[in-house]
Amino acid sequence: MPKVPILMPQLGESIAEATIIRLQVAIGDTVSPDQEVIEVETNKATMGVTTLCAGLVTEVIAKEGVSYAVGSVLGVLEVTQEEVDRTGEQILDELSSDGNVKAVTGQEEDDDENLHFKTQDGGYHEPVTVEPNVKGLPVPTGKGGAHYISPRMRARMTELGLRAADVSAISGSGAGGRVTVEDLEQFLEHISAWPHTKASPMRLAVADAMRRSWTRPLATVARPLVMDKILDHRRSQDPKPGPALYLLRALALALAENPTTAGYLIGESVVHPRAFDIGVAVQVDDGVLVPVIRNADSKTVKELVEEYNHLVDQARARKLPEDATKHGIATVTNFGTFGLTWGTPIPLPNETLILGLSAGVKRPVWSDETGTFIPVTEAEIDLTFDHRVVDGGGAGMLLNRISELLQEPEAL
Length: 412
What we know:
Blueprint: E1 3-7, E2 17-23, E3 30-31, E4 36-41, E5 46-50, E6 55-60, E7 67-69, E8 73-78, H1 81-87, E9 91-92, E10 104-105, H2 151-160, H3 181-191, H4 201-213, E11 218-226, H5 228-235, H6 243-257, E12 264-266, E13 269-271, E14 278-280, E15 282-284, E16 287-289, E17 292-293, H7 301-316, E18 330-334, E19 353-357, E20 361-367, E21 372-386, H8 392-406
Parallel strand pairs: 14-18, 18-19
Antiparallel strand pairs: 1-8, 2-4, 2-7, 3-6, 4-5, 6-8, 9-10, 11-21, 12-13, 14-17, 15-16, 19-21, 20-21
């Protein structure tokens, strides 16, 4: 009977590989069309690899915990000719013991449809394992640091997959405290016996994004926010909006009034946003995902709550659609859920702003109306911004406007 490959699909336009999380079939299993047979993890979400054909699993090449490039053969199905005709799937003649697909019947040597896994000798690629392209190492604090990286040192770091941030705290023995290759080798030998775990694709993606974000001059301003009106309004709603949704809506309205504060500095121009799409940071296992609410300035909290809750649930389940995290202009984050009373959140590399909310704390506040101190729930809102685009005064005025809007939650 004909055999067809199970291939690593293109899971997104910017995704070149994925890591096998769970094999859901074994040799000898029967599968149906569109059945999910392998669960994989990208740097943004977990997704399923499905089959087009119904058939019998005869080879499982993929291994859990290993990353494979798009187009890699992950397994083989034995199917009927009717299934091949129905789906148009390519037929494999045989699969060698090392997992290399040797031939395809009914296809010409130069068929463009085969190029994604054809080798120069006419055979087919083995699954291509991929090393993470962002790596890191723990570093102890030292008096000196790798302020200057020589060409020889940089070449060695490239061989090891290291970035400047990974070695910045190594004490240098060279001239002026310069870190030498020998210093690097001694450090790597020193930590070789330390406990370590492999970083997940999500952790590596967050690390890479934060490294790129920190190439800009970032600053943070903050102010107190009385939360009682927001909390009262939230209790009256069904379904209840998350506290971060009120911030998201207020931020979108404030930016719509003054779009320049969310602009991008490109060369000598500030590029203004064309839509007020605001992301919300959601903590997931070993990382953060940021689903984006589109046109948040044109919808009320009541209109947004179901969409917001659905995206947050999808993010926590690592099931966000590929386009749900793209093209936000700013982000809100509620780090108060962890009991934190202040923070300095960092915006994504493609964003100028991030607005954070701390935990609410009961505090006495003077009331001019009663002439006494009254208890209120007070939180801190923090705005981190790209200082190239926004100055402290502009950031302060934006934060004050957000605070004003939040004191009228029924209007949000």
